[in-house]
TrEMBL record:
Family matches, as InterPro entries: CBASS_pafABC_assoc_protein (IPR051534), PafC-like (IPR028349), PafC_HTH (IPR043839), WCX_dom (IPR057727), WYL_dom (IPR026881)
All residue ranges annotated as the WCX domain in the record: 259-332
Superkingdom of the organism of origin: Bacteria
Name of this chain's protein: Helix-turn-helix transcriptional regulator
Transmembrane segments: none
Organism of derivation: Spongisporangium articulatum
PROSITE patterns recorded: WYL
Pfam family, one: WCX
Domain PafC HTH: 7-113
Annotated WYL domain residues: 163-230
Length: 335
């Protein structure tokens, strides 16, 4: 499930009990409550209208009305009831939250360094949220809490943990790192020296943001692609021109120098617009999308189209239309 789809599902699950208990609430007020536009709220209500309990008969589906500008929900009582956890579910959640609280970097030890400035990430805020949720869940779980206290998860010993440990040491001592970094698109291991700026976690993956002396620019390195990290006896303070991207949601913004590609996908391929950063989308008559995005390497496009399995095609540039068709023929010839 993509990040956007996951966020929407979480919003819908919170929206149903809120609306059931506020029958007749104004569209504008409900949209403001969930931090979305009225247009997006209507789309969510249209989706709720075809959701319900198993059976999929008319009486099983949620009833939603909003034509008057006020929202009314019906036949949603089972979903609106508070969640009740079984003891084993409570134990699993408590153990998971305790493990999360011990994740390296969550407590704000991943400093952001740019030039002569140094500051902490918002890890302390994240840790506070985890501890607050843990305290509430432990209090509510009652008899399940002691059982959860006897469980422990060992997060040490992995290759990624070793890289993270070295990276945190580099940040604390302001020392340069030598990385052996795997570039999947070229099936190549590169050697590069970097001045680390911060360690961050985005969508469940760890990244190093650093000034790369090979590229002479700020680069983002996925920790699971770092073959090795060696601490150098060299000052690792990034140069003044090294600017950190503070908005994690914009970490993967494409460069203007990247190749612009246009794809057309049928409804099965709409996930591409949610999974990858795109420049624009246009609705097609068949329910599909025309998608414009930028790619750093041409090899990415044929792989994406093959992954779509007939649900998409390249429209431009012409050389990629030809190259992708050739890649598909070669793939078929392999079977």
């Amino acid at each position: 499930m993509t990040v956007a789809a996951t966020q929407r599902l979480s919003r819908l699950l919170a929206m149903v009990p809120w609306l059931v208990n506020r029958q007749g609430v104004e569209l504008a007020e409900a949209a403001q409550r969930f931090g979305i536009s009225e247009e997006q709220l209507v789309k969510d209500l249209e989706l709720l209208f075809v959701c319900g309990t198993p059976g999929h008969m008319p009486d099983d589906l949620i009833e939603a009305e909003w034509d008057s500008g006020q929202v009314y929900l019906g036949n949603a009582d089972p979903i609106a009831r508070p969640l009740r956890l079984e003891p084993d579910e409570a134990v699993a959640l408590i153990a998971g939250l305790r493990t999360l609280a011990d994740v390296p970097g969550l407590a704000g030890d991943a400093a952001v360094t740019s030039g002569d400035e140094s500051r902490e990430t918002d890890g302390s805020t994240q840790l506070s949220a985890v501890e607050s949720a843990l305290a509430k869940l432990t209090a509510a779980a009652q008899d399940a809490a002691p059982a959860a206290a006897r469980l422990a998860v060992d997060l040490s010993g992995g290759a990624e943990e070793g890289v993270l440990r070295t990276a945190r040491e580099a940040l604390a001592a302001r020392r340069r790192l030598h990385l052996r970094y795997v570039v999947p698109n070229r099936d190549e291991v590169t050697e590069r020296d970097v001045d680390l700026m911060r360690v961050l976690s985005v969508d469940g993956r760890w990244y190093l943001e650093a000034w790369c002396h090979r590229a002479e620019a700020v680069r983002l390195f996925r920790v699971d692609r770092v073959a090795s990290a060696q601490l150098l006896d060299v000052d690792g303070t990034p140069p003044p021109q090294a600017k950190s991207r503070e908005d994690d949601a914009a970490l993967f913004t494409a460069s203007p120098d990247d190749l612009q590609v246009t794809l057309e996908v049928d409804p099965r391929g709409r996930w591409v617009a949610e999974y990858y950063p795109v420049e624009s989308t246009e609705e097609l008559a068949d329910g599909g999308l025309r998608i414009t995005l930028r790619v750093a390497t041409r090899a990415f496009v044929p792989r994406l189209v093959l992954r779509l399995g007939g649900a998409g095609r390249v429209v431009s540039p012409p050389e990629l239309v030809t190259g992708t068709a050739q890649a598909a023929r070669e793939a078929l010839a392999s079977y």
